[in-house]
Amino acid sequence: MNLDSLTISETQNDSSSITGKSDDSVYWSVAEVQSLLDTPFNDLIYRAQSIHRQHHDANGVQLSTLISVKTGGCPEDCGYCPQAARYHTGVDNQDMLSLDEVVSAAAAAKANGASRFCMGAAWRGPKQRDMDKMTEMVRAVKSLGMETCATLGLLKPGQAQQLGDAGLDYYNHNLDTAPEFYEEIITTRQYQDRLDTLQQVRNAGINVCCGGIVGMGETRLSRAGLIAQLANLNPYPESVPINHLVQVQGTPLYGTAALDPLEFVRTIAAARITMPKAMVRLSAGRQEMSDAVQALCFLAGANSIFYGDKLLTTGNPETDRDRALLDKLGLHAL
After folding, report:
1. Which of 116, 149, 220, 297 is an active site residue?
2. How far is CA 40 from CA 47, 76, 79, 195, 244, in A?
3. Of 47, 116, 194, 209, which residue is the catalytic one?
4. pTM of the model
5. Per-residue pLDDT tens for 60-88?
6. Given 47, 266, 281, 286, which residue is catalytic?
């Protein structure tokens, strides 16, 4: 059944979804998440903040840094991505960074207060020669005392275990959107491909970092479908990045109607309520957000940001601006 064919009235038949569920193993239907998103804003934020305080430091925010270890030239057709080789976005295909470059960047990130370092690569999936380099990078960054994360695309059998053996803490592989909206965004890989990679990560004993992107022209019901899909993973991800589409000229999604900022905040709140113990990461798109919107996101349960001047190839609020915002809100780094 197509999620977008449901009517609002069909999603409002379970009052338990208004207050949320304390049992983090309970199944969330799309209708229940839709009902959450439809809740009056004050009630929704109150519930999300209440759940957040039960499981997390109310004023703590983890600072993460993301670096592109291999940029551009990706064969996929993700409609949002400036690194796809088929789109003309001004992003050139670059060779993989050296170990020294990555370690230097990680050390600088740690010196600036980041406790988590994520390494991303633009390819469909890594070859074995790439894995040899990546495991070396993971070990080196881990030796600095930082939490490590990698996002390398689809994994082949055995590759997740190699990363786990190297000490990788988290593997990021986003679902991007609801299953029913997926083919509007990507055609070169299937939804099941993403789920298969996540299962390999779980089997290797690595924590899962998995979220999505909103503002791609989807409906509220599709956003509910994404959150339900994430919340019903068994177990749900330890880390849930919620990205706001960064529109890049040359990509198919450039020119998409902008998402209302309060709808983004609602999505953060729904993620917190349905996945109470997860780190909800306020990810791409912060450069376009006002301080007030970001503050609402923290109130709604976001407790991690990507810290620095760039997210892979797109801009991110500068370090000084982030420090000023956290100071203004009385928030501290975890």
Report:
1. 149
2. 11, 39, 32, 33, 22
3. 209
4. 0.88
5. 999 989 899 998 888 898 989 888 878 88
6. 281
